[in-house]
């Protein structure tokens, strides 16, 4: 079961103690939001979880196995879409399959099956510069899914989108999460986004960073794009806001 | 419709301007009765060009052959060197200053050495062309490789991509636009390199044609040769631009730019 446990992670970057001590748990098949001020080391944390960076102290384990410093176990989606301008959508999203050794043709066929779900049907042969911002993010998301279907690290995937597109992406993502049930760690600056999408939220402090608040979201994810009227919503939002000292 | 008209008008302006300059030149030469061995008028040059066309084309052929050979060799060298310099940082630190320093040696001063070593055949000219072209190509390719967004590399590392796969799928394609801008500079340099090589002694080529014409004060022939050299440079430049569009059609920056 892909449960992610981060235990006592500490990291100093360029002489600056960035992460003092981070402990967090993402239970299997849950969506966990990570909120924090700019520059608090959220991306560093993701680099450590994805194995790109070694922590100075502490460990990362997935499904009970220590995987500190191992790459290739989780799928990491950056804020930028990072689609290769030289490849069309289909070839871009099939990159992870090709890297795993699938033949180009088989990879294309496999990737093509998912275009519909990710709202990219009919755009297979388009190049990244021909796509809208939302489409590029969905293509990046499909690439993320094709690398690993069970653990996703999403680093502000919607930060570059306008408010309307972002809202549409939320509704869409809810459906995708429902369908694939991955374990997700989700970095965001948007409190409402976190409350809307996540089962649990961690709020991080300023640098040197510790976990300031761990909050389970008491209401389930809404099925449709409706304003959340749950009584607990206001309290949860206030708690997060307080922790962020907004 | 209006836009099209503007485009036509825009490209007509420099043509008209050049035409006016030529007319002015012709008039001045005639009015002031300038000696032909000093400065011939454009009409005279054009006549010489037409009269000597078969011979000029024969010379141009060997010059172009030297250019293309040197150009291709320079491209191959640049790719091989850039790959190793990009993948092995120690090599980059060792070679980069050498690469820049090599450019401070004036080509015109070493070219005679190649004649001494390799004779009057094509080889010394090809070497000069390689030396002239290599630097802009290698530098633009290295620059392009170094400028690849680190996040792409991190993404590929997180997907457990090997170094070769990363180079082939990410670094190389993303470096190509920069590579092509270097290639375009080299394309125009390459003809110059070949002509310089031929000045010093050759069996055939536009350079030697120019030298001979100049020594016998046939200035109209020198001008005709200059015209052919210019056309060769422009043709090579156009060829590279065409290749660029074919090889990286996805590059937005070149997509709508005129040749």
Automatic annotation (TrEMBL), chain B:
Subcellular location(s) per record: Cell membrane
Spans through the membrane: 12-33, 63-84, 96-120, 126-148, 169-202, 222-243
Subcellular location, principal: membrane
Gene3D superfamilies noted in UniProt: MetI-like
Keywords: Cell membrane, Membrane, Transmembrane, Transmembrane helix, Transport
Cellular-component GO terms for this entry: plasma membrane
Record-annotated ABC transmembrane type-1 domain positions: 60-240
InterPro entries per the UniProt record, alphabetical: MetI-like (IPR000515), MetI-like_sf (IPR035906)
Membrane topology (UniProt): Multi-pass membrane protein
GO biological process: transmembrane transport
Coiled coil: none
Xref: PANTHER family: ABC TRANSPORTER PERMEASE PROTEIN HI_0355-RELATED (PTHR30151:SF20), ALKANE SULFONATE ABC TRANSPORTER-RELATED, MEMBRANE SUBUNIT (PTHR30151)
Record's protein name: ABC-type nitrate/sulfonate/bicarbonate transport system, permease component
Organism, as annotated: anaerobic digester metagenome
Gene, per the UniProt record: ssuC
